[in-house]
Amino acid sequence: MPVPVSQRDLNIMALLDQKYTDRPYYGVRRMWKYLQLDKKITVGRDHVRTLLRKMGIMALFPTRNLSKPNPAHRIYPYLLKGLDIVRPNQVWGVDITYVRLAHGFAYLVAIIDWYSRRVLSWKLSNTLESDFCVAALDEALLLHGRPEILNSDQGSQFTSEDFIGRLKAEETVK
């Protein structure tokens, strides 16, 4: 069961969210300095990093210390380069974002048909585990058939055994 976020952290997260909206290129160090100097909030840089990760926020221009992919996960090739998308169910896209709520955050996964730009399925969760992504995929497959290609950022939820296993069962992954 996830640990609830303290009110102090919620307030800090709200400030970080506002600053990120204004300055999406700010990384951990700049966000930390913003809290220290502008808002007079004493907080550790590592805690700011933790809160930003919890919110799913990262600078638009990554720094030199990029995280490495998990070597245990297979990297799938990018299949969309030069591809003309001309029909429904040819390409679906899937992604996760966070949604700020009155008392915390939730994570939203959405599956979109790239041709029609229609949202095929979406689910909310209070954790980043893969089960809500698999549930969204199951719903999209049930209601709309299967795509030829499912494009994702290859985050851990989308390269998990459950998610990939479901795609293999539908013969979407070869």
From TrEMBL:
GO molecular function (one): nucleic acid binding
Name of a matching Pfam family: rve
Boundaries of every Integrase catalytic domain copy: 84-174
A GO BP entry: DNA integration
InterPro entries on file: HTH-like_dom (IPR025948), Integrase_cat-core (IPR001584), RNaseH-like_sf (IPR012337), RNaseH_sf (IPR036397), Transposase_IS3/IS150/IS904 (IPR050900)
Gene3D superfamilies associated with the record: Ribonuclease H-like superfamily/Ribonuclease H (3.30.420.10)
Protein name: Integrase, catalytic region
Organism per entry: sediment metagenome
